[in-house]
Design a protein that fits this description.
Radius of gyration: 22 Å
Strand order of the largest sheet: 3-2-1-4-5-6
Shape: globular
Largest sheet: 6 strands, mixed
Order of helices and strands: HHHHHHHEHEHEEHEHHHE
């Protein structure tokens, strides 16, 4: 990371001439068509996997798609609509995958991560450049939803003990951004008052996304400590953040649905925030219904929808050891409230 005096990312949109050039250069890097170019990058990366991992990934994809197809069906509908040969192929694929997984010591998480890493690596350049063109902000209504979540995250870093017998532990001055991508919410956190670069840590499974984030925001330096924002390319579930209670807030911005084990992600987050006054924040500006659509379109990448208020209640009741309470209930999919607010929990 090169030293720089810059401490806050730009929100200035590119002028039309620069934007046109950036779009042209981006299209060229993707072979003339960003959508097709992204798919070609994904295909090439899958082909370049070790043979056993490529076969396991292909079997995992086929099984996941089949299971998603038949999940909403009754037994009668499945017998009527799914040919016996197709069901037999799925069962054979399961046996093949089981054998590979046992022989190679793979897990469902490993295979999910293959698709997540490859897909986001392929899309990283396009996503980051497109954000640069528009000044790293979303449409005003969507941006307001992100800003609200980021404000909650930042306010938690400012909490300190007050008065005799105060019950809220002093803030540690750190925010963790899970699924940080190319640093999509760094600007929003800075605008919300995250004043020191040292206060931010972002983690993403995609090395290319993290590379893009470092290129844009990783050079900011705290003049007093010499430290800067930290971006980590790694698996959130496995990464060692240096002990419990190291953050005031953990934020998942359009990211929780990309993690295969949502309950496991919340469990780890609860251990990372300080025990009193820490916040775990889940936001999706486009709402839970948007995520359900992603699940239906691509169950390999998005295994399920975001937790409803009822599911949050059940999770928190089942896990008192997390020490979490639901302070803000998310809007239900397709509700009028979701139309106005998106998803925030």
């Amino acid at each position: 990371k090169a030293s720089s005096s810059s401490s806050s990312p730009s929100t200035k949109k590119m002028n039309p001439r620069d934007a046109k050039r950036a779009k042209q250069e981006l299209a060229e890097r993707y072979g003339g068509d960003i959508g097709k170019g992204t798919q070609e990058r994904i295909r090439t990366s899958l082909e370049n996997l070790e043979p056993h991992l490529r076969e396991a990934a292909e079997l995992h994809k086929a099984i996941t798609q089949f299971d998603a197809l038949v999940a909403p069906m009754t037994a009668a509908d499945r017998n009527r609509l799914i040919p016996a040969a197709q069901s037999q192929i799925a069962e054979n694929d399961r046996e093949k995958l089981k054998a590979i997984v046992e022989e190679r010591g793979l897990s469902d998480l490993d295979l999910h991560n293959v698709f997540q890493r490859i897909t986001w690596d392929a899309a990283a350049d396009a996503k980051a450049t497109q954000a640069d063109i528009v000044g790293n902000t979303m449409k005003s209504d969507l941006q307001e939803r992100i800003t609200k979540a980021c404000t909650i995250a930042v306010e938690s870093t400012e909490c300190a003990e007050e008065g005799e017998g105060a019950s809220v532990t002093a803030a540690v001055g750190k925010v963790l951004d899970v699924g940080c991508g190319h640093g999509a919410i760094v600007r929003s956190l800075v605008d919300a008052g995250l004043s020191e670069p040292d206060m931010y840590v972002g983690i993403d499974l995609s090395g290319e996304m993290v590379r893009a984030a470092v290129d844009r925001y990783g050079s900011a330096r705290n003049g007093r400590t010499g430290k800067g924002r930290e971006f980590v390319a790694g698996d959130f579930y496995a990464y060692d953040f240096g002990g419990d209670g190291g953050f005031d807030s953990v934020i998942f911005c359009s990211a929780l649905h990309d993690l295969p084990d949502m309950e496991g992600a919340i469990s780890k987050s609860s251990s990372l925030v300080r025990s009193e006054g820490g916040k775990v924040i889940v936001v999706h500006a486009q709402g839970a219904q948007h995520v359900l659509g992603q699940n239906q379109a691509n169950p390999v990448m998005v295994k399920r929808g975001l937790p409803t208020t009822k599911e949050w209640g059940e999770m928190l009741d089942d896990h008192p050891e997390w020490g979490l309470t639901l302070e803000y209930e998310p809007a239900d999919p397709r509700s009028d409230r979701e139309e106005k607010e998106g998803y925030l929990a």
